[in-house]
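The methods section describes the discrete structure representation at length, but only in general terms. What matters is that the chain and its backbone geometry are given together, residue for residue. Nothing conveys this as quickly as seeing an actual entry. For illustration, here is how one protein appears when written out as sequence plus structure tokens:
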Amino acid sequence: PFEPTQVELDGKAFSVEPDERRAFENALKQFRAGEFAPSIASFQQLRSRWPQSGYLPYALFWTGSAQFAIKDYKAAIATQQSLLASFPDHPRAPDAWLSLGIAQSESGDKKAARKSFETVIQKYPDAQASTLAKERLAALR
């Protein structure tokens, strides 16, 4: 029961411990239930207990999303920037750029938001995030 197991997310496969998997699934369940503050704490626990986890980029993405949901735009921006700096080619990168742009826009930094939306459009033209970024960019003008 303590053997690492393979998991696959967004086409990426990696090994996790059973406790690590439970911790991630619990945090994500909290997020999906709208329990944003508890999910942030749970994702942060996961990140500190398993700093090399394959779940790390997801934990960052969902932490940033939860911070955005509670309108902590400054924290959401920092978290998504951390994800993008550490995992620039991750499958969640287009969504992270979009989320970053929206948080920047909400916090009043239209110039940074414009740059983030343009990055999504240029780097990931086929991603759904690109379509949403175009709409957001048009609304900024």
